[in-house]
Write a structure and sequence with these properties.
Glutaredoxin, six-stranded mixed β-sheet, 7 helices, 37% helix
Length: 197
């Protein structure tokens, strides 16, 4: 984890990406690029947005800085303080809770030795509670970085975290082998006819 920088500027690669993002919007509507630019700045800055990065985005878009702060503080996808290398976001909203997210939270607490809003002493893991990650049919689930881990139970959640601890890359997606968001027992409709057509 790093401290707050004194200044922020996009590196050469991200400056080109920022120009391309801004160019997607009509003249006069460049402020619409605020969310992707904040994401780009956050990715460049080890997963969090210091005030200087938000100010830089405001300058690029010709927006008052307060408008950028409003966006960054409203959406939970933006982190306003340093986070660990692996940001473990556990969904505890109703569908995940009904399917056992309390067990996932417990497994994460036990495996990582931290609670929501905390970072491990080695700076490797930050744990956050989220309201909804949009994969309700595959509940319970958690997001780590850009990857979704779905159809979890306490054992699979623990296995994912242990693999990350050892430097491995756990397989994202359903942990029960479910294909995307099909019913857990497999397709019940839209099956091929008996003739194979």
């Amino acid at each position: 984890m790093t401290g707050q920088p004194e200044t922020f500027a996009f590196n050469d690669e991200n400056a080109e990406k920022a120009k391309a993002l801004i160019a997607k919007y009509p003249v006069g509507w460049q402020a619409s690029a605020v969310m992707p630019l904040l994401d780009l700045a956050q990715r460049q800055n080890d997963g969090w947005l210091p005030k200087e990065a938000m100010d830089s985005v405001a300058g690029l878009l010709g927006m008052p800085p307060i408008r950028v702060y409003e966006v960054a503080t409203f959406y939970t996808m933006y982190n306003l303080k340093p986070i660990g290398k692996h940001h473990v976001q556990v969904c505890t909203n109703l569908p995940c809770w009904l399917r056992g997210s309390d067990a996932i939270v417990g497994a994460c607490r036990k495996s990582l030795g931290i609670d929501f809003g905390m970072t491990t002493e080695d700076g490797m893991f930050t744990m956050s509670e989220t309201e909804c990650l949009g994969a309700c049919v595959n509940a319970p689930m958690m997001q780590i970085g850009d990857d979704y881990y779905e159809d979890l139970d306490s054992d699979s959640a623990t296995a994912i975290l242990e693999k990350l601890k050892s430097g491995g890359a756990p397989k994202p997606g359903s942990q029960t082998g479910r294909h995307t968001c099909e019913p857990a027992g497999g397709l019940t409709t839209l099956k091929p006819s008996k003739g194979g057509k």
